[in-house]
Design a protein that fits this description.
Blueprint: H1 3-28, E1 45-50, E2 70-75, H2 77-80, E3 84-88, E4 96-98, E5 119-126, H3 128-133, E6 138-139, H4 141-151, E7 159-163, E8 192-193, H5 195-203, E9 212-215, H6 229-234, E10 240-243, E11 254-261, E12 270-272, E13 274-280
Parallel strand pairs: 5-7, 6-8, 7-9, 9-10
Antiparallel strand pairs: 1-13, 2-3, 4-10, 4-12, 5-11, 11-13
Amino acid sequence: MSTSVRRGLAAVTGVVLFVAGAATSAALRQPATGIERAPVQLPAFGRAVFLSHVNDPARTPLFPGDPAFHIRTVFTVPNDGFYLELIREGAHTGTHYSAPCHFHKGALCMDDLSPSDLILPAVVVDIRDEVANDPDHVVGVRELKAWENTYGPMPSGAAVLLLTGCSDSWGRRGDANYFNCGSGRFGVHQPGFSRNAVRWLIRTGVLGRTGATGTDTFGPDPSSDAAFLPTWLTLRRHRVTIENLTNLDALPPAGAWVVLGSPRNVNGSGAPGTVFGLVPSAG
């Protein structure tokens, strides 16, 4: 690796750590009601993991009604000297995050958000056992409080992520598929947050000016909530939702951070992208 490349990588790393530190500082200044939220210190990271699926038309499940997804080769190295594809997909295809304007007229869109809105401390709530028994499981306030009793207060401005296990069915065909969380049941079945759970996260300051709800399904809403109210509640101020995640079991319940990377489309309601998980060093 050349010296110039090494210097470039060092500069990029410095920028990411500076922005993450700014996000931490901003989060610490957010008021919270109820219990006092624990300060969030930027840890030393031991490794980075992908939390996003590969963007592959052959394997990517599309939310019912979304535009078709195609990738077509336009130029090739043998014929043109370079390789380039044309990609056609909806803004909410595959792993992506949604901006507030996705559900609210006049709210912030992707090009209005700041870098510190997209680098968030992660809270991972593991509900795989519950989902194995009920693919329509709804996470309530009691489960979020139980998480805090075990791991301590959730930080302000957190990305609260449900580890459901549904991502194991990504790309599957047949009766047991991603739409029914591998259960084989007819129709769409997915777990999610209850409305009151999201209201509690907002009221206690976990979802403050910034923050997110996310999951390894089509979105934070359980299949029983046809109004998508958990998403509607989340997408205010500078908050986002993160959808179709994977590999959440590579993160600890507390202490990791997530970094959201997507094209910053003008007036964009969302975009497919790469989500990174930064795992703190042991000890």
